[in-house]
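Quality-control log, excerpt.
Job 1 of 2 completed; input and output follow.
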Amino acid sequence: MPRSSSLPPRPLRLIAGAALALSIAGLVVLVLCSILRAATGAAASSVDIWRLVVMTSTQAALTTVLSLIVGIALAWALNRLRFPGRDLIVGLFASAIVTPGLIIAFGLLAVWGRAGWVNEASLALTGQPLELPIFGLGGILFAHVILDASFAARILLARLDAIPEARLKMGQGLGLSAVQRFTVIDWPMLGPTLPGLGAIIFLLAFTSFPIVLLLGGGPANQTLEVAIYAAVRLDFDLAGAVQLALVQIAICSAIIVATAAFAPISAATGPSRPTRWHDAGWVRSLQWTILGVGVVGFALPLLAILADGIGPGIVDLAQRPSFWRALFTSLALGAGSAALTLLLALTIGMARAATASRLARTAIGAPAYAYLAVPAVVLSLGAFLLVRDMGLLPEFAAPVVVLVANALLSLPFALATLAPPLEAIATSRGRLIRSLGLRGWSQFRDVEWPLLSRDAGVVVALSFCFSLGDLGVIALFGTEDFTTLPLAMYRALGAYRSNDAAAIAALMLLLTIAAFTLLPRLFRRSNDAAS
């Protein structure tokens, strides 16, 4: 049966989705117009755009290649090994997508920096410090690969888990070696995923802000995002900031257009099951080595943050009203951003599922990916200019701007998570919905929500964690009275209050772990109780 004939008519969903898509597109156009208007009226700037483009592209390309290589190796090892606590390791890698880059960068400093664990151990054992290049391109790549390779490993592991059991039994019966199995069975599953996954990693690295800000080590390793922030916040060079923003928008848009044909990568991968495959002894040793290095590389910075941050520093921090304002602001923005993201993703996803027209689905869904072309710092710059053009004080508009920007930041991942199951429900249960005569709300309550609740919990957790760890938007709009935990942590580092920064980092990490772990379960259990 054609898809269109199985769908019940839902004109209100189409209207709501189209109106929302137009609103997002209109907002992006307003932001871009404010940037273009500032570009035409601004004086010439001495910013070396070409050097910044080369640096940003170089680190993003290196991050992408290294992350895919490491991610493939980790997914390969996890897919083969069976051991107690495997689900915990899988969950650790899955959490990489929501772990704030600022946390990882600070954790690397706590382990590998001059006052870090490794340096202190070297001084105690040999009397000599280790001169490790944690600042500069090496540190940037290290932090990016820890995050992006872990994210890639979880996505690729899901592809390996999807290999049919019959194909594995046939390969085992043929006596395929580890190399032969990877070539014949694994690679056909991994290969089609790599271009889309690589494009996501490249864009994430290209638009990275807190990691480069903390580990860049100076102007020589600046990227476009950091240069835009420095031009506005430090130099008030709006001409240079606008030029850099236009260049970044052009490059990101070109990448998105070039990779538009690739399948979207969902952040909701579900549980993992290890396969039964007998590898040679040396192959098992290699798999354990790869997994051990990967787990230590990702977990050690997090453990360092918890060890250094949980202590008297938290007690001292709790006595300051500024800390509680930052905490309340972060929680309020996180909750508001999560609710807004879920509403936007459901509205757009249901509208896409209500039509069989590919052109209509593309037109409704395309504005949701605006953040990928207009990243956080660029979006906040445009909003800053727009607010200024409207004659409003930036501090007056700051909460709304940050809330909307954080929701748009999460929306691409939220839609990639919710849109496929919504379309699958419309296709597989469209005839049932039509035969039962379910209306829009009853269709959502009785059919769609029970099947979407777990994914909705993932979306809420993702959105909350993205907002909690965001520094790109608040960096331009933050004031003494409007501060979030990431901005408070960055200011503490700039004032050499390392104990305060460590305590804030530990608190952010605990909040991220709690949200990522508990929110999906809460949504699933609430739905089970209701049913």
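Job 2 of 2 completed; input and output follow.
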Amino acid sequence: MTTKKILMLLLALVMIFSLVACGPGKDDPQKTDPSAPAATGDSTEPDSAQTEAPKAKDNILKIGGSGYDGVFNPIMSSNVYDAYVCDLIFEALVQLDKEGNYIPMLATWEVSEDKKTYTFTLKDGIKFSDGTPLTAEDVAFTYRTIADPKYDGPRAYAVDGMVGYDEYHKGTSAEFAGIEVKDEKTIAFTFKEAVVSNIENFGYGILSKEYYAFGDNFDTFKELIGKPMGSGPMLLEDFAPKQHILLETNKEYWDTARVPKIDGVLISEVTEETILAALESGQIDHAQPQTNKDNLDKINEMPNVTAVPFLGNGYTFMCFETTTPPFDQKEVRQAMLYALNRKEFIKAEYKSEELASVGMAPLSPTSWAFPDEGLNPYDFDLNKANELLDKAGWEMKEDGFRYKDGEKLTVRWLVYTESTWTQTLSGLAADTWKQIGVDLIIDLMDFNTVAEKTMDADPAERPKNFDVYTMGFSLSVDPDLKGALFDADAGEKGGFNASGFRDEHVQELIAKGRTTFDQAERVKIYAELAKILNDEVATAIVAYRYELWAVNNRVKNLDVSTYLKWTAFIHDIELTD
């Protein structure tokens, strides 16, 4: 999957929980902060929607959280929370294991010698919850829908690299050449380019061609967003927006040996302010509080709850606008990082150096691609910062500010207010950057406005909109940096490279990294990339953060980790008295 997917989910998470969760592909590595970004499509409630939460039975897993939009369709949902529901109702061709390797879910697969064609063979006996068989035609329908000219969801990256996508999407061809149904159980997908991460595009739930058929009216498809029907182990029983989601176990689930042992899942809307109390009282069994030492300590004091912290597959970042002064000079960007005490930031925000660490490269320390050495941590050093600014020609004047060519060293930092970490970081900078002669202007605004002025702005408008902005980024399992913060090709409106940074050697390495299938060679490529980007700091990696989950001790066989969400354990979870 692509990096694009990842940021969307990241935004949802960073804002609500100040951390990022990943899923089985880029879909649930989806990109992505306080409230989830608006979902694409209409959210329709089931006819049975209630105004009061149904009473949870003892054998129902109770989840707490917020941010659900009610877009229960795997190719239309755009935040992590709706993706949880989709993961339980739908199933994909592939899934991740605990180590981050792709393994079969609905199908096994083979890859052609030229690495461009993936041929999947479905398992025997797969059925949708309405009893109809799931076939290769349903798989083809799912991916053709993403390529359809009328499709306006967030998953286009899953198919736009396939042969024939452009013709099919533009409506100049009725056939999608890159998708071939060979028989009832076999389907082949052919890509234009051999890319290691292509396998990630098959981590999305499969839709029933019969149930979701829309013909020429895509609104017909959207009308079913709140009435999902898949092949998964759960069924949607009830949804009341901003209140609860009730799922019940699909007793007719096709894999009879893996029918869930619990009766269902009740997801209740619980705010960050009340989430710990809800855990302690037993109102909810499982939740993801904001990651900080205070919350960790409080959970550890609860006799009925266990804390589960683990390193997330993502990071927080600060992006510099590099096409105009002052950040068109690398020395200035480096100086700002030396003058930002990120260790103090971690202590202030997370209250523990064990829950976050200083960031150095746009790769996660959980990844095999993360280099073991050669990265500059930019330890807090005001003397070094001043030396670099002097070298860059910014002269300190008697008024305590630096100037160059008659211009004051003024920096405008866009800070969204839905999360605390952005304000903690910029607050520290307000003190230390002033000491090196920077006139820092902090503009507080909501997250969507920050996005509109940066990633979603026309590249020509960005230089006057900001000098610095901060966000979070969630990564997919493969270290492929195509479409990410440093990819010059992602510098268009809506792309993630709002910095304007472009380096031809970096572009060559990004292309080489995604098309090299020898992992030992890829380790070398990404080590070189990491060192270059660590030196250029067009976008500085602020910190790598832990995710914090809490689980009631009555819940057995649930083991969330970097690459596996709680939904992956739904077949094995048991609840005790």
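Post-run check on job 2. Residues 314-546 form a domain with the Dipeptide-binding Protein; domain 3 fold (CATH 3.10.105.10).
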